[in-house]
Model the fold of this input.
Amino acid sequence: MANSSHSMDNGAQKLAGKVVIITGGASGIGEETARLFANHGARMVVIADIQDELGNQVAASIGSDRCTYVRCDVREEEQVKEVVDSTVNGYGQLDVMFCNAGILSPSDQTILDLDFSQFDRLFAVNTRGMAACVKHAARSMVERRVRGSIVCTTSVAASHGTMLRTDYAMSKHAVKGLVRCASVQLGAHGIRVNCVSPSGLVTPLTRAAMKIEELQKVYAQSSRLKGVFLTAKHIADAVLFLASGDSEFVTGHDLVVDGSFAV
Done:
């Protein structure tokens, strides 16, 4: 029975032997995905973040033989390149890049009161940083002829106009454009590029902006699907689908996980 169970476990491991980088992997969606990837047999999960204490804690809890933490500020392209290079040098290749690092608008900006200092900081992380991650992951995959998967975190804000947080919505629209372009350009190399778009969910990032009770109430009202609250695990499951062979013929796709978002 033990052998049978072990065989079933191996069959369920959708990322067996894969080498993965997750930016923004120290908390929230990134942390949940790191744990899920490790459970699905990833040979090494590299967490790239600027939250050193949290990142090291997550890596240690998963196990140093399967997960490691590297400090990386995605606003700095050279740091992104160094993470990709060190991963490839250490583990032979890069199979999956989950570009997840992102921030929220620090204020509810409309176009009439747009603060460009805040705008520039947000775009440096959400858009420029995302492009740097896709660029250097793709270069590594092309060079080593890896038919890899690149997944980006966007948002339902990438598909709708918003009353507030104009800069955030713009940054997520830009990421969707990045995914569409990269998927067209990298298809010849067998590299798939997709994105996942959550609606509102409670994470350490969103909790910093609003009380948890208020968040749950607001987010519940924005979904037509009742009886279930969106969690980081739901998003991680969607990312796993896009990262694994289950989505072998899926590229340039925006996988919306929003419970039929009401607009």
Summary: The radius of gyration is 18 Å. The CA atoms of residues 222 and 262 lie 5 Å apart. Confidence is low (pLDDT under 50) at residues 1-8. The longest helix spans residues 116-143.
